Amino acid sequence: MKKTILWIAALVMGAILGVLGLDWINATADFVATVYTRLFQLLAVPTIVLAVITTFATFGSKGSGRIFGRTLSYTLITTFAAAVVGAVLYVAIAPGNLPIDALNSGAQPIAEQSSPTHSLSDIASQTSYVNHILSIIPNNIVKPFLEGNVLSLLLLAFAVGIGLSKLPESENKQVIVNGLSGLQELLFLLIRWLVWTLPLGIVAFSAQLSSQVSAGVVADSIGKYVLVVLGGNVIQFFIVLPLFLLARGLNPIHVLSKMVPAVLMALFTKSSAATLPVTMETAEQRLGVRKNISRFVLPICTTINMNGCAAFILVTSLFVMQNGGAALSMPTILLWILISVISAVGNAGVPMGCFFLTLSLMSGIGAPVSILGIILPIYTIIDMVETAENVWSDSCVCAMTDHDIR
C-alpha cells in the first residue's frame, strides 16, 4: 500500500512539474527518463533469457508422466486462450494513441528502425515472411545478445531450457543449472535496486509526458487500455475457463464455489506463491482433489500458468508499440501472441512480475517505455485481478488433471 501511494505521489508530482513548462525541469526529466530507459534496456536481455531458461529447465525434474503432460498441456492452452482474448478485445476496442512525439528521446520509434529484428510493423511490406523467419533463427550465438533480438533470444532460451530439462541428471548438468540460477538471483537483486528507485523514474516519465499531452486524450486512451486488460481478465475468468471445465465434464460453478477462499486470497495478496498453501488446502479439502495431484500440479502451475500475465504482456506491448509508431497488422499481433505466451510461461520470480517483463520486452525493441510509467500506478489494481485469475486458472488445471487421471 505504501509503495502504491508513493508511485501515485511520484506520478502527480511529475505531472505538476511538466505542466510548469520550465526548460530546465524538462531537460532534467528527459535526462533522468533516458537514464532509466537505458537501465531497463541493460537488464532486458538477461531478464528474458534467464527467466525462460531456468523455468523450462525445471521441467525435467518435475517428472514426465501423464500428470505433468496434462498440466503442461492445459497450462499452454489456457494461457494461449487468454492472450487471444486480449488480442480480440484490443482490436475491437482500439485504444487511441497518446500524443507523445518527443517521448522517444531515449529510443527510436519502432516504425523508424531498419533492423529486421525491430521492424515488427513492417513485416509484410519490407520483407517476405520466409526472410523474416530466417532473420529470427540465429547463426551466431553472440549476435542476438548484442542486437537485443528478442525473438531470437526467446528461441535460444526456449531451446536451451528444454535441452537442459532433457539431459540426464549429472554433476555437469547441476553445475550449469546452479550457475544459471545464481546469475538469476544476482539479476533479481539488481532489479530490486532499480525498482526501489523507480519513483524517481516515474517523476521523470510523468513530467516528460505531461509537458506534451492533454489530459483528455490521456484519460480516453489509457481508459480504453485498462478496459481491454480488465475486460480480457473478466472474460477469461467467467467464460473461457468455465468452458474448459465444461468440456472436461466438470461443473464450473461447483469448482469456483469450492475454490473461492484461494481466489479471494490471491485477489488481496497479489501473489500466487503466497496463496499456494491455501490453494492446495482448498483444492484438497473443499474440492476433493487427491493430494498426489494437487501437490504436484499446483506448485508447477504457480510457476508457469500465467493467464493474466500473458494477456497483460500482449495488450500492453501492442499499446506501447502502437504509440511508438508501429502499424499493428495481423501478422504482428499473431507474432506477439506467441511471444506473450512464451514470456508468461517463463516469467518466474521476477519482481513486479509481468510488468517488469513487459517493460524489458519493450525496451529491447526500442519502444517508448515512458508510457509504462503512466500505467504503473494502475497496475496495482490490474495485478490484483490478474493474480486472482491466475489462481483460478491453476485451480481449473488442477481439477481437470485430477478428473482426467481418475
Write the layout of secondary structure elements.
Layout: H1 2-20, H2 23-57, H3 66-93, H4 123-126, H5 129-136, H6 143-147, H7 150-166, H8 171-196, H9 198-210, H10 215-247, H11 252-269, H12 272-285, H13 291-304, H14 307-323, H15 330-345, H16 353-364, H17 370-405
Helix pairs in contact: 1-9, 1-17, 2-7, 2-8, 2-9, 2-16, 3-10, 3-13, 3-14, 3-15, 3-17, 9-17, 10-14, 10-17, 11-12, 11-17, 12-13, 12-17, 13-17, 14-15, 14-16, 14-17
Q: What distinguishing features does this structure have?
A:
406 residues, mainly alpha
Please give a structural write-up.
The protein is mainly alpha-helical and 406 residues long. The protein is 78% helix and 0% strand. The chain is built from 17 helices and no strands. It has helices spanning 2-20, 23-57, 66-93, 123-126, 129-136, 143-147, 150-166, 171-196, 198-210, 215-247, 252-269, 272-285, 291-304, 307-323, 330-345, 353-364, 370-405. Helix 2 packs parallel to helix 7 (150-166).
Q: Outline of this structure?
A:
With 406 residues, the chain is mainly alpha-helical. Helix content is 78%, strand content 0%. The chain contains 17 helices and no strands.
Residue stretches low in confidence (pLDDT < 50, at least 5 long) are: 104-129
* Overall mean pLDDT: 80
End-to-end Cα distance = 43 Å
What structural category do the secondary elements indicate?
mainly alpha
**3D shape:** globular
Q: What is the H/E order?
A: HHHHHHHHHHHHHHHHH
Sketch the major β-sheet: none
Give the helix tally: 17
